[in-house]
Amino acid sequence: DTEVTQTPKHLVMGMTNKKSLKCEQHMGHRAMYWYKQKAKKPPELMFVYSYEKLSINESVPSRFSPECPNSSLLNLHLHALQPEDSALYLCASSQEGRNSYNEQFFGPGTRLTVL
Amino acid sequence: AQKVTQAQTEISVVEKEDVTLDCVYETRDTTYYLFWYKQPPSGELVFLIRRNSFDEQNEISGRYSWNFQKSTSSFNFTITASQVVDSAVYFCALVIQGAQKLVFGQGTRLTINP
After folding, report:
1. Which of A43, B16, B42, B95 registers the highest number of CB atoms within 10 A of its CB?
2. Mean local confidence (pLDDT), A10-30
3. Is any Cβ of chain B less than 8 angstroms from the Cβ of A91?
4. Nearest by CB: B95 against A92, A101, A111
C-alpha cells in the first residue's frame, strides 16, 4: 500500500470554528509532514514529525496545532483561522534514513476555505 | 542556503512534441538530493524521480528522461512525445543531507494541447 490518505477533501469553515484535518499512511514511514499550498505557489512546509515527535515547526501560527497520535496518523487541528489561511493542505510521509534522504509521498490534500 | 529555480513559469506545446523543463539549483553542500514532482489539477503531488549528488547518470523512464549535470547545477526533465495527460504543474526540489525540509522551485505549468 503506497498511499497517503487525507480527509476531508474539502472543508469550509468560519473564523470561529474548530476543525481537524486528518492524514493516514500505512507504508511504515516514520516521518510525516504538513504543507500549505496557495494557488500558483509551491508547497510550504509547516510541520515535520519524526518518530511521532515534532521535529520542525516552521514558525506556524498557534491557530494551527499538529498532533501525531501514532506512527500512521497525523492530524492538524484548526482554530480561529483567518480567510488568508484558505489553501490546499497537503500531508506527506517518508522513510527515515540515517545516511540517505527518502522521497516524500504526498496525499491528495484538503482544500480549505475560511469564510 | 539552498535555492531552486525553475525559470519557465508556463509552457504550452502541441501533443506529440518533445518538451524540456529546466531546473537550476544552488547549494554549498556536497551531499544533496534532487527530486521532480508532478501536480495534476487534482492537487496531489506525484513523485517522479530522486537523484543524489553522487549519481550523475541520466535516467530514462518511458517517455520521461532526466539530465543531471553538476557542472551547471542543473537537473532538467524532458518529456518525449508529450500527451494531454502530461498537463500538470511540475516541481523540482532539493534537500541537503541531514535536513528534512524540501526546497521547491516555483513550478512550471505545462499544458499539452491536442
Report:
1. A43
2. 93
3. no
4. A101
B75 band by pLDDT with thresholds 50, 70 and 90: very high
| Main-chain dihedrals φ then ψ at residue A14, nearest 5 degrees | -85, 170
Amino acid identity at B73: S
Note the residue count of chain A. 115
**d(CA A84, nearest CA chain B) in Å:** 19
Compute the mean pLDDT over every residue in chain B, rounded to the nearest whole number.
94
Contacts of the segment B49-53: beta carbons below 8 A, 24+ positions apart? B50/A101, B50/A102, B50/A103, B51/B75, B52/A100, B52/A101, B53/B29
C-alpha closest to that of B112 among B9, B11, B42:
B11
d(CA A108, CA B13): 27
